[in-house]
Design a protein that fits this description.
This protein is mainly α. The chain has one domain. Helices cover about 75% and strands about 5% of the residues. The protein contains ten helices and two strands, in the order ααααααββαααα. A hairpin with a 3-residue loop joins strand 1 and strand 2. It is globular.
């Protein structure tokens, strides 16, 4: 019988108890607290990526990446999403031209942008925006938690041992099922009417989140590191916590824009 728990689980739980209320409070209030939270997260991703991928010169990458991302957030605050998109492209190009390895510096900047900007667009300043972000938290966190416990309890064939030796198919399926149901529960608790589309969206986002987790594992394995940093006990770094969330939020924003609606959040949830 696989052992569930241990020191790793204790550290994960303590970190979650500290961080989750902060994140949820910032999401509830929106505005400046939410913007500050994701600014810190984006800058953390820039720093960790530069460290793992050995970007040189590091300070230049921090400076370009940090200033451009802060500029993007200010533009979003001013209601300029189109200009923000162009600034993201310019920032990626600037990183590619001025720092090395060019591919990894460009991907690092884009990863930091994906980790912080789509969630700001979805949050907006209304109740639907808050519900959209809570829906995403439920799907991604539910997937992560259920995958951890299901995988350890049931074991079985490995999902992709070359990238992540601890992940199993049982954990992936358990995570997807629970994450989808958690997102649906939050949507219904927020006053939405049940529709099968919400289940489909939750399932897609759960799978995308797990894919993002695997992609980050591949990135770290390429450079021979286990964690992006040691900032969050039991979890690793900011990038380790936001890998799945970044890909899921980016996918959610794409779904929202393709569907259309009064706001991006409405495009995601109101069908």
């Amino acid at each position: 019988m696989p052992v569930i728990g241990g020191r790793d689980l204790k550290q994960r739980t303590l970190s979650a108890v500290v961080l989750a209320p902060v994140v949820l409070a910032a999401t509830y209030f929106g505005g400046a607290p939410f913007l500050l939270l994701w600014t810190v997260a984006a800058l953390g991703v820039v720093w960790e990526w530069a460290s793992v991928a050995r970007i040189t010169p590091g300070p230049l990458f921090y400076g370009i990446g940090g200033m451009v991302l802060i500029g993007c957030m200010i533009l979003l605050l001013l209601g300029e999403p189109g200009t923000t998109a162009w600034l993201v492209i310019a920032g990626a190009a600037a990183c590619a031209v001025t720092t090395k390895p060019r591919l990894w510096s460009t991907l690092g900047f884009l990863c930091a942008a994906a980790a912080a900007l789509p969630v700001l667009v979805l949050r907006g300043d209304d109740q639907v925006g808050m519900l959209a972000v809570l829906f995403l938290f439920a799907v991604v966190w539910g997937t992560d938690i259920a995958a951890y416990f299901t995988g350890r309890a049931l074991g079985g064939p490995k999902l992709w041992p070359r990238l992540s030796p601890n992940k199993t198919w049982s954990g992936a399926v358990g995570g997807a099922v629970f994450g989808t149901l958690a997102g649906l529960a939050v949507a219904l608790a927020g006053g939405l009417v049940f529709t099968p589309v919400l289940i489909a969206i939750g399932l897609v986002l759960s799978i995308v989140a797990q894919s993002g987790d695997l992609a980050e594992s591949a990135f770290k394995r390429t450079f021979g590191v286990k964690d992006a940093s040691k900032l969050i006990p039991g979890h690793g770094g900011v990038l380790d916590r936001l890998d799945g969330f970044a890909t899921a939020t980016l996918a959610a924003l794409l779904i929202a824009l393709l569907h259309g609606g009064a706001t991006p959040a409405a495009g995601l949830l109101l069908w």
